[in-house]
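debug: dumping io for the single-chain case to check the tokenizer round-trip. Nothing else runs in this session.
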Amino acid sequence: MPLQTDHASRKREFLFGALLLFGSCFLGLLLLEIAVRIISPPSPFHPLIPLRPKMKMEIHINLPGVSPVSMHSTNRWGLRGDEPPADWDKYFTVVTIGGSTTHCFYLDDHKAWPYLLQEKLKKFDPFVWVGNGGVEGHSTRAHIIFMEKVIPKMKPDAVIFLIGGSDLGFSISKEQFEKGNPQDLARGHSFYWPLFYSRLVQLLSLWKQILIDKVEVVGQEQAKHNTFERIPLDHEFILPDKKPGEFLPALGEYRENIKKLIALSRAQRVRPIFLTHPLLFDDTEQWKHVLGDYYWIKDPEHRISAATYWRLLNIYNQELLDVCREEKVDCFDLGRELPHSSDFFYDSVHFNERGAEEVANLVAMFLLSRGLPEKPTP
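debug: decoded output
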């Protein structure tokens, strides 16, 4: 009898110790989750769209055509730009969606082209609001998630897509085509449930990308975000004499993603407006013997010239124009209208302050020519 009593007592002690350990770990993780949420608030919409609300930072940078000090902040929705107006329905509201060329990371809040676009449109209608939803590295794969998870909650009148640059990478790099941009996580996540609810898991996932997956961090890539370096190219890769879809493997997906973005916009009664992607390079003699710059692509299939890089991007731009024409939606050929000049870019693809100003001018004129801004009829 005493042996049975001792066995039962040890069992109770073991269970109590296990429960105490589990409870302590749970309480510790709960407190850590609360602390992390205070220090780094989660996205108010979806974990795969990293919009961080109420973020403020001062950026010191040395880039051509960019102020040495700029303020970078977000509103309560995690967008760059003014706070959403309280009387939302009185305003013509726009959200810009794109990658780094929409985000304008290094430009001051008031010098990014979405904000400048808002200020230009307000001269014609004071009730205009433009929120900057650009996210570094995002492609149309992630833009679809943005349209599915974020836009239905914001309910703007229009969305402006600046696309093509990130998607071209899927055709230049086999690894990116198969795995997707690690920045946009557009292929989903095996730990979706904890990723959705836990900010701690989201940050651990981010550090996994940085330390294990070797995703490039913008702050550490300042040296590469610099004046474009003209590296001579002796042997140019000649584009094959085939249809573009045969040597650009992701072009078909790009076309389908555009159609999906249009369908989602229509389903949500949001007006889609597309912009083709500009580039410093063009198809002229000066760029035919210079190496094309795609520093965010780690394993390009071929060494191509800057001129060929523009030809490839222009194929993507033309695909966008063709789909928009077929679907009867607005598309502005910004890639053609913005001059291929270092006056407007601080590297091969990102706008400096003068470039952002010119983008805002061109897009504002296009919108005004389309009768915008105006509130849609109920």
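debug: round-trip ok. The radius of gyration is 24 Å.
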